[in-house]
Amino acid sequence: MFERVDQKKERLDDKRPLPKYTLRSLREKLLLEWTYNSNAIEGNTLTLQETKVVLEGITVGGKAMREHLEVINHRDAITYVEEIVQRQEFLSEWQIRNLHRLVLKEINDQYAGVYRDQQVVISGAEHTPPAPFLIKEQMEQLMNWYENEAGELHPITRGTMLHAIFVGIHPFIDGNGRVSRLLLNLELMKDGFPPIVIKVENRLDYYKALDKAHTQENYDDFIQIVAKETEDSLDLYLSSIE
């Protein structure tokens, strides 16, 4: 399934280290598109250009402060993901909580980094997340799977399953989707893949694939989506240096 993706990854690896300014411009492009799309999937109404302006420190008139904070916080969370990758740290539950603290900073400080104490439902999904008293146990099971089994998987499969299992647990009151996509890219970036962007226009297929993973434990559709986006990001990098 991943043969073409792995071949493109090898071509990219052969070109490393990449030119400094090319690398910087690619990072800025993907940081913007990742932030815009991840927020838009969750209902943020800022456009791509408005998101760019907010990242530059400018306030957009007529938009809620929360929407501005979602952009700034997501940028900070990406920076934290990059730091974890650079330090070659092993993923921990503590890091997941830290990511969530960054995502909800000044939006909902009471619940930032804190597991939910209320039942939630996911609109439009068959899957219902577990009751609050089960969250700690299920997060421990997730981390046990990650530590003992996930390392044998291809980075795309590992990142996809981490995303899907985490968001199925839905451990936080808010921000689970953003954190799950950050975790997905964390796994890809650890193995030298560029970050991917799950695009807002593909939101319906994305939600359907997630619901299939949660209700049937069938991750194939979701893995296909992530593999395609991984190839798109690799193509972007390769087109810039070849």
UniProtKB/TrEMBL annotation:
Site (Important for autoinhibition of adenylyltransferase activity): E42
Active site positions, chain numbering: H170
GO molecular-function terms, A-Z: ATP binding
Protein name: Cell filamentation protein Fic
Entry annotated with the keyword Nucleotide-binding: yes
The entry's keywords: ATP-binding, Nucleotide-binding
The keyword Transcription belongs to this UniProt entry's keyword annotation: no
Coiled-coil parts of chain: none
